TrEMBL record:
Residues 415-650 form the Putative exodeoxyribonuclease 8 PDDEXK-like domain. Residues 217-226 have a biased composition (Polar residues). It comes from Escherichia coli. InterPro entries: PDDEXK-like_dom_sf, Put_RecE_PDDEXK-like_dom. Residues 362-380 have a biased composition (Basic and acidic residues). It comes from the Bacteria. Residues 154-226, 345-383 are annotated as: Disordered. This is Exodeoxyribonuclease VIII.
């Protein structure tokens, strides 16, 4: 073909003389490249081969950056990586423009990687999406991670499992290469050999063949590496055995049964048959979740100090009501990205999903407080009114320190989260009380639950949680040790959290204590999880609230929240109606103590920034607080009208979101 010959000679003559050999090999293999792209170290960056991007697609550093940004966005929402929604594409461009970790770190690693442009879009997106949170803090760890997961050989036809992971259709972990002794674990998915592609240093030599980039980058001294692995393994075993010393012994329990129990299923011999959640018609903290406003988070009452196994509700999307592990397949991030929600819905610009104790009635405190063990809930407390466990059906206005979380939610009174339903659509108020709940979909741990306990009741943390040692789940021995550890923990009634979760929670707690006012709020004498009841003077409706912590000595209320982006909290508070929460709680406090309190939000980020977890303290301005008072009074009047007329409006009017209006006007 004369055209191909002409194109080849044009590319050959324009190429650097050192690249002409590689360019010729590429053309012989059918890759019609016009030039050879190299990394900063001089290695061949690849990019001339056919990938899943399609024939004729020119894959360069710009499209690589777009794929990496897609992977970052895919952490918080499910995407069709081959047919992006316009709103998703816009957010991807924003991530590129922001040029912040983890995007910048992963992009740079792919750019400096020999053959980094050879890989399919699917594996680039999936590898970034599934990378451990915070790994970008140490770039060398990113190199090690990519060295394990970039196992692809057929770049034009990526593994369907990888495609499903990238698009969010599968929750399976990324297939990884096990490098120990150069052998695969017998339970791991076999991976092709010789496909490692991570550049080990800036002195990487130039590749002799443009399509042979996936060299084994393991150190030459294999024996020293094996010895290092063995030493680390023995160290982890020692930590495991040390942790087991503090776990009471028990009869062996089948691991499959234990895991089923941890998923929320009833297992004979493990589950407590007297637990209210197994009695039909009784809803507890374990079974009410999603948008259910009366999610019950079981706390032992004053006569039952034994710890209980805690099950946390899945996070629910505020837009469509679906639940997920951190994202909504249709509406975007539940915890995380906010610009997508800004673009997609002008009515509710959800910036970042905070673990809000009063965001939903059922999630009204992700941390479960043990009422029986709290010294500030003792019946002798001068400001309390409780001598015996309170029967909430007969509740009177006042402040109570002995009401369990379960009884609080089951009792009378209107909470702020129920007023949120009234503000949305009054019929939701009834729907949340009557809709059936899928009790099988529970989550063993919400990070916010443990963090709230660590901050509000640090002395209780070790009584309710066990931090597991690290396990090598890629080996049979590691899996068996993990099962054995879980079985031994079953008898304690405590929630098991991973070593990584425990490390993160402790760092977040220490970040709070590093802030002088944060330390003062945490260490000041006060009452966690007290219940305040009062009557609204205008409507006569009984209102209730359950502050994270009140400090009567200074008349302060502290509300602890976690957020994926602490900067977005400054505007996201309005969408979550935190100004309404401030006004509602403050008026309830004043009804009891006769003083308007100072209400502060202690906000901790779950995302690392400059190697730290940011912590800030906010309070509402007078204008915001006044708007909150007006809003909740308006909601109470609406509720009063609905109760009096028994008419509950249910139909919502749909309007075009902002991004759709922009497209419609084009």
């Amino acid at each position: 073909n004369l055209g191909l010959i002409t194109a080849f000679f044009e590319a050959y003559l324009n190429a650097d003389y050192t690249d002409r050999g590689l360019l010729t090999k590429e053309w012989m293999k059918g890759n019609r490249v016009s030039h050879i792209t190299r990394t900063a170290s001089g290695a061949n960056a690849g990019g001339g081969n056919l990938t899943d991007r399609g024939e004729g697609f020119v894959h360069d550093l710009t499209s690589l950056a777009r794929d990496v940004a897609t992977g970052v966005l895919a952490r918080s929402m499910d995407l069709d990586i081959y047919n992006l929604h316009p709103a998703h594409a816009k957010r991807i461009e924003e991530i590129i423009a922001e040029n912040k970790p983890p995007f910048s770190v992963f992009r740079d690693k792919f750019i400096t990687m020999p053959g980094g442009l050879d890989y399919s879009r699917a594996i680039v997106v999936a590898s970034v999406k599934e990378a451990p949170i915070g790994i970008e803090v140490i770039p060398a760890h990113v190199t090690e991670y990519l060295n394990k997961v970039l196992t692809e050989t057929d770049h034009a036809n990526p593994d369907p499992e990888i495609v499903d992971i990238a698009c969010g259709r599968s929750s399976a972990p990324m297939p990884q290469r096990v490098t120990e002794e150069g052998k695969q674990d017998d339970e791991e998915k076999p991976q092709p050999s010789g496909t490692t592609a991570v550049e080990q240093g800036e002195a990487e030599t130039m590749e002799p063949d443009a399509t042979e980039h996936h060299q084994d980058t393991q150190p030459l001294d294999a024996q020293s590496q094996v010895n290092s692995v063995d030493a680390k393994y023995q160290e982890l075993r020692a930590e495991l055995h040390e942790a087991r010393k503090n776990i009471p012994s028990k009869d062996p329990v089948d691991a499959d049964k234990l895991l089923a129990a941890l998923r929320g299923e009833f297992v004979d011999g493990i589950s407590d048959p007297n637990d209210p959640k197994w009695v039909k018609g009784i809803q507890t903290r374990d079974c009410v979740y999603q948008n259910q406003p009366e999610t019950e988070k079981t706390s032992p009452d004053m006569n039952q100090p034994e710890p209980v196994v805690q099950q946390e509700p899945e996070i629910a999307c505020n837009v469509c009501g679906q639940t997920g592990w951190d994202n909504c397949p249709d509406c975007g991030a539940v915890m995380g990205d906010a610009t997508y929600q800004e673009t997609f819905d002008e009515e509710s610009q959800v910036e970042a999903k905070e673990n809000d104790p009063e965001e939903m009635e059922g999630a009204e405190h992700p941390h479960n407080e043990n009422a029986g063990s709290d010294p500030h809930r003792d019946c002798s407390d001068e400001t309390g009114e409780v001598a015996d466990p309170v029967i909430v059906e007969d509740i009177e206005p006042g402040i109570y320190y002995g009401i369990s979380n379960e009884n609080y939610h089951a009792g009378p009174g209107v909470s702020k989260s129920q007023l949120d339903d009234i503000a949305d659509t009054p019929a939701l108020y009834l729907w949340r009380k009557n809709a059936p709940v899928d009790t099988t979909k529970t989550k063993t741990l919400d990070l916010g639950t443990a963090f709230h306990c660590r901050v509000l009741e640090p002395e209780e943390f070790s009584n309710r949680f066990i931090v597991a040692p690290e396990f090598n789940r890629r080996t049979n021995a590691g899996k068996e040790e993990e099962k054995a550890f879980l079985m031994e923990c079953a008898s304690t009634g405590k929630t098991v959290i991973t070593a990584e979760e425990g490390r993160k929670i402790e760092l977040m707690y220490q970040s709070v204590m590093a802030l002088p006012l944060g330390q003062l709020l945490v260490e000041s004498a006060g009452h966690a999880e007290s219940s305040i009841y009062w009557e609204d003077p205008e409507t006569g409706i009984l209102c209730r609230c359950r502050p994270d912590k009140i400090i009567p000595e200074f008349h302060w209320i502290m509300d602890v929240k976690t957020t994926a982006d602490i900067q977005r909290f400054k505007t996201a508070y309005y969408d979550y109606r935190y100004h309404v929460q401030d006004a509602f709680y403050s008026d309830g406090y004043e009804a009891q103590f006769g003083v308007q309190p100072t209400f502060v939000f202690l906000v901790a980020s779950t995302t690392i920034e400059c190697g730290r977890y940011p912590v800030e303290i906010f309070m509402m301005g007078e204008e915001a607080k006044l708007a909150g008072q007006q809003e909740y009074h308006r909601n109470l009047r609406t509720l009063s009208d609905c109760l009096n007329t028994d008419e509950w409006p249910a139909i919502k009017t749909l309007s075009l979101p902002r991004w759709a209006k922009e497209y419609a006007n084009d």
